[in-house]
Specification:
heterodimer, A: mainly alpha, Cytochrome Bc1 Complex, Chain C, two-stranded antiparallel sheet, 61% helix, B: alpha+beta, Rieske Iron-sulfur Protein, 4-stranded antiparallel β-sheet, 11 strands, 31% helix, flat
């Protein structure tokens, strides 16, 4: 039957040749290459669980009185949106587990995208010819952040409502157009009756469509340009080696997807996340403490917390305080990220295409910059919880903030420089044995013996591999025996 | 069953049983923890089985593909260039038409921008005023007026103008302090009857409700970004990212001893914006 289906398809599409080559496509195997796949599988999980949730969610700020089974809120006034989330959590069978899986998958989704971007950065996979895919990847990160924020805000609970209020204030702070922008986006002065409905449309239609489109383009480009891979014996810039798509890689990848789903299902079932019934419905004059956003917005929250309280007054106008940490800072971060392939090309002068990946130590400058940037972002993220740190360590929040303001200036350059030095000296260790190749002259004598004593010097396998590789211009470290193809003839008997 | 097959078989069996268990659990009424755990075993068993199958039972062959060069050969690029240029020339000859085309596309683009205007009302002066008027009765969240005897020293209550309970921009926090300790800016001598001071509860940083009162230091603190305001000196910021004091509401007690506003706030409440002087 499968045969008839395949032939029937080919009768119409003449796709046999393409499909055969596709099934034999080589997928390099390395755990670090799976991070993007984890993100992709999370997106599928998000679409499936999210679709289920839309059948019950009510995107309305209309006030209702709660009469459901959750006793502490019975008789309270709340938005229809919040009441519908209570219904999903308490009355819809499997509703709570779906909601929690959805939220956990979102948290893992952005974590996987971030880790994937770090992998691509530190291995130099963004270099020519893959700059376009780097930019598409950043688009996916931005869309993911947007999806996360809009989704987090939909329950209209006290915590998320406060987050939306902050977002409104950040929008309001933009010079010249801020007031109009805030009024157009929110439909008036915060809080409006429109904003939940608008967030919902963004969250379930516009942003997922952008993600689906960008993800498709991302995968098509990976397919077309073929994968990068780490250097090693037998690896060259002109070839790509790995498991064939069918059946080995397909099985492993689907297996990975199912494992990702299993992990978020386990988290969704056993680890409570965003228990909105504890926060209560959103009321503009009430607030909970401590208040933290989801982890991926922690850096923006941290920036808002430790930024100086500068407000500029110019010619009867105001550049409000949140503009610097809330708009300028993320603008700079994403501009640098987007421009990095071009900045690095300018610095190194290396405009050649690269299909073999760097190890981080091979590119000390890039790794140093990455280390500094990562330190900056992690520090800001930590400061997004400065109130929790203050309570936990029993240190005044003022002390923590003062320390953080010093560290945010001092630590990134220090970490960046240290990374640079460590990478450079690691690189030199690799260079050392191969840098002075062994030169020995030996003559065969007429009697069958040898003349000339070979210089006895221990040579490491790494050095040998390196020497073997020096010919094709790759200056990579190549001690990589575990990646040699292992062929066990006994396996074929199954 | 062969030794290498066994782990795979175990995984699939676990998955199968767990899937059945999930169905039973659902029919029996559902239980979130059990649903999550059973779903995890169903998915995980399947996933682990597939991975083990691929790793242990399939030939671990490595294939090598040749990469295509990153760019097309020069003759093809030249041919493409010619093709594009030829098309451009054909169009370029009709100067009038191409200009009209560009003009029409531009006008259409402009027309499509206008619906954006429908998304929200004009800001007008909404950010410059609140619902407080001279004589507005101050009510708490449940609609009760505030009597002069209601608060002890260091007592705190959130009030709204009557008929606007819950209003986001009018929310006002009333604190009672010892009048002798007050050091309000000049001109506000009559704004704090009997030690009652009323400040906008909307933080001047990012607009969160300034909901924490630190009685020991007479400070209001915003839990979002820890901006702190000194209640005794007119809510001047003493710490954190807030750049301005919380605006103070002029208040008085009427003949019945109930708290009323003497006017609206004298400046815009909440975070800064471009048109704020």
């Amino acid at each position: 039957m499968i045969r008839r289906a395949v032939e029937g398809l080919d009768d119409r599409l003449a796709a046999a040749s393409f499909a055969r080559r596709a099934l034999r496509k080589a997928f390099p195997d390395h755990w670090a290459f799976m991070l993007g796949e984890i993100a992709m599988y999370c997106f599928i999980i998000l679409v499936l669980t999210g679709t289920f949730l839309t059948f019950f969610y009510v995107a309305s700020t209309e006030k209702v009185i709660y009469h459901g089974p959750y006793a502490p809120l019975r008789g309270h006034e709340m938005s229809a949106a919040y009441a519908s989330v209570l219904r999903i959590s308490y009355e819809v069978r499997a509703g709570l587990v779906m909601r929690q899986i959805h939220h956990w998958a979102a948290v893992v989704f952005i974590a996987a995208i971030s880790a994937h971007i770090l992998r691509v950065f530190f291995t130099g996979a963004f270099r020519r010819p893959r700059e376009i895919n780097w930019l598409i990847g950043l688009t996916l990160l931005l869309a993911g952040l947007g999806a996360g924020f809009t989704g987090y805000s939909l329950p209209d609970d006290l915590l998320s409502g406060t987050g939306v209020r902050i977002a409104y204030s950040v929008l309001l702070s933009i010079p010249v157009v801020g007031t109009w922008a805030a009024f157009l986006v929110f439909g008036g002065e915060f809080p409006t009756s429109d904003f939940i409905g608008r967030l919902f449309v963004l969250h379930i239609m516009l942003i997922p469509a952008i993600i689906a489109g960008a993800l498709t383009a991302h995968l098509l480009l990976v397919w077309h340009q073929k994968h990068t891979q780490f250097a090693g014996p037998g690896r060259t810039e002109d070839t790509v080696s790995g498991s064939p798509l069918w059946p080995v890689y397909a099985m492993k990848s689907v297996g990975l997807g199912l494992m990702v789903a299993a992990v978020v299902a386990l988290l969704g079932g056993l680890v409570q996340i965003n228990a909105v019934w504890l926060y209560g419905p959103f009321m503009p004059s009430t607030v909970s403490s401590p208040a933290q956003p989801d982890w991926y917005l922690g850096w923006l929250e941290g920036a808002l917390r430790i930024a100086p309280n500068w407000e500029l007054h110019l010619f009867g106008h105001t550049i409000a305080e949140p503009f610097l940490p809330g708009v300028v800072l993320p603008g700079i971060v994403f501009t640098i990220l987007g421009a990095w392939p071009f900045i690095e090309r300018r610095i190194t002068g290396d405009d050649r295409p690269h299909n073999l990946l760097d190890k981080p130590r091979d590119a000390p400058m890039r790794s140093g910059v990455g280390g500094a940037g990562l330190t900056f972002m992690v520090l800001l993220t930590v400061m997004g919880s400065n109130d929790v740190l203050s309570t936990f360590f029993n240190v005044p929040i003022e002390t923590i903030d003062r320390l953080a303001r010093i560290l945010i200036v001092v630590l990134p350059p220090v970490v960046g420089y240290a990374t640079f030095r460590v990478c450079r000296s690691l690189g030199r260790i690799d260079d050392h044995p191969a840098a002075a190749p062994l030169r020995v002259e030996i003559h065969r004598t007429a009697t069958g013996g040898f003349e000339g004593e070979p210089e006895r010097r221990p040579i490491s396998p790494a050095a040998l591999a390196h020497q073997a590789h020096h010919g094709d211009g790759a200056d990579e470290e190549s001690h990589d025996e575990e990646r040699q193809p292992v062929h066990d003839p006994a396996e074929h008997q199954d | 069953m062969r030794g290498k097959e066994r782990p795979v078989a175990v995984c699939f069996t676990l998955s199968l049983l767990s899937g059945l268990g999930l169905a039973v659990c659902y029919i029996a009424g559902g239980q979130p923890q059990l649903e999550g755990a059973l779903l995890a075993v169903s998915l995980g068993g399947l996933g682990a089985g597939l991975i083990l199958w691929a790793k242990r039972l399939l030939p671990n062959e490595e294939i090598t593909e040749q990469r295509e060069p990153p760019s097309s050969p020069e003759p093809e690029r030249a041919a493409l260039r010619t093709e594009i240029e030829r098309g451009g020339e054909t169009l370029g000859r009709r100067r009038l038409l191409t200009r009209l085309l560009a003009g029409a596309a531009g006008a259409l683009g402009l027309a499509l921008v206008f619906p954006i205007r429908s998304l929200g009302p004009s800001p007008g002066d909404t950010l410059f005023r609140t619902q407080w008027r001279a004589g507005s009765l101050a009510l708490n969240a449940t609609g009760q007026p505030l009597h002069r005897d209601d608060l002890e020293i260091d007592g705190v209550v959130t009030v709204f103008p009557q008929e606007h309970i819950g209003s986001a921009d009018s929310q006002t926090i009333v604190v009672r302090v010892n009048p002798a300790m007050l050091a309000l800016p000049p001109g506000r001598e009559n704004w704090a009857p009997e030690g009652y001071v009323a400040y906008s509860k909307v933080c001047t940083h990012a607009g969160c409700p300034v909901g924490l009162y630190l009685a020991a230091t007479h400070e209001l603190r915003c839990p979002c970004h820890q901006s702190t305001f000194d209640v005794l000196t007119g809510a001047t910021p003493t710490y954190g990212p807030a750049p301005r004091p919380l605006p103070q509401l002029p208040i008085e007690f009427d003949a019945d001893g109930l708290l009323r506003a003497r006017s609206d706030y004298h400046e815009p409440v909440g975070p800064g914006f471009w048109d704020r002087p």
